[in-house]
Design brief:
- By secondary structure, the chain is α/β, with parallel strands linked by helices.
- The chain is about 40% helix and about 20% strand.
- It contains 8 helices and 7 strands.
- The chain has helices spanning about 15-25, 45-55, 70-80, 100-110, 130-150, 165-170, 180-185, 210-230, and strands at about 5-10, 35-40, 60-65, 85-90, 115-125, 160-165, 190-195.
- It has a 7-stranded mixed beta sheet, sandwiched between helices.
- It starts with a strand and ends in an 11-residue tail after the last helix.
Length: about 240
């Protein structure tokens, strides 16, 4: 029985993706039965081809393709819907999230006998990005933390682990992956945090710019604040 599904959203990562899935395979050797789901978000390079070739000798590697590019949240959502395990880990397809961090990321969920922890959020230490990207991310994180009070310093980190049922119960919207701590907390789940390492991109270039993030971030932040304010507050007692 599969215990863990690893979901990787990616677009045009043909030069990075095989090394990443092989690293995940090595990192999770002692975790139990797992699957790796790569969601190709409308790539125009050979990402799908190299994954199909690698899957010939890696039967627990699955490929899902979008008919067009829908963004990172859409890719994660498609992967989680297809996942067979109750626990899911995510990491970015560019190789900047070290797969060696996955066992430590999922450990709090596996050890949680109460079932109250819904999300474990990775928080990058020693980010290997340009100074402009780090400054923009720091400003966005401070604003988000001030508005949402989500007690998370780095929601942009792709390394996350969560309960599949909890994720699928969240309201879907594009870019929701940056607000998972606030959204899980909105539904009454406990949130855990794990510091994780970060490494430079191996090849290719980012699919996002600072301007793109800022343009959608302001609207999304207001929307999430509204969702939290309008959450369901009454809960049923035991049936009589």
């Amino acid at each position: 029985m599969i215990q863990l599904s690893v979901v990787i959203p990616c677009k045009n990562e043909a030069e990075n993706i095989v090394a990443l899935v092989e690293g995940i395979d090595r990192a999770l050797t002692d975790v139990g039965a797992f699957e790796i789901i790569v969601v190709d978000d409308g790539s125009t390079d050979s990402t799908a081809a190299v994954l199909r070739a690698r899957a010939q000798t890696m039967p627990h590697l699955r490929l899902i393709r979008h008919d067009r590019s829908g963004g990172q949240s859409a890719a994660v959502h498609s992967g989680v819907r297809a996942a067979q395990a109750p626990l899911v880990c995510t990491l970015d397809g560019d190789g900047q999230n070290p797969p060696e961090e996955l066992p430590g990321l999922v450990a709090p969920l596996m050890a949680d006998a109460s079932g109250r922890i819904g999300l474990v959020a990775g928080q990058r230490v020693g980010r290997q990005d340009t100074w402009s990207k780090k400054l923009a991310s720091r400003a966005a994180n401070r604003l988000r933390a001030w508005v949402l009070d989500d007690h998370t310093r780095d929601t942009g980190c792709g390394l996350k682990a969560f309960r599949r049922e909890g994720f699928l119960a969240l309201p879907y919207f594009d870019h929701m992956h940056r607000y998972l701590p606030a959204l899980f907390a909105r539904d009454g789940w406990q949130i855990a945090h794990v510091d994780v390492s970060h490494r430079p991109r191996g090849a290719g270039r980012s699919n996002y710019s600072n301007l793109q993030r800022a343009a959608v971030g302001a609207v999304d932040l207001l929307g999430v604040a509204w969702l939290i304010r309008r959450r369901k507050k009454a809960q049923p007692l035991a049936e009589e």
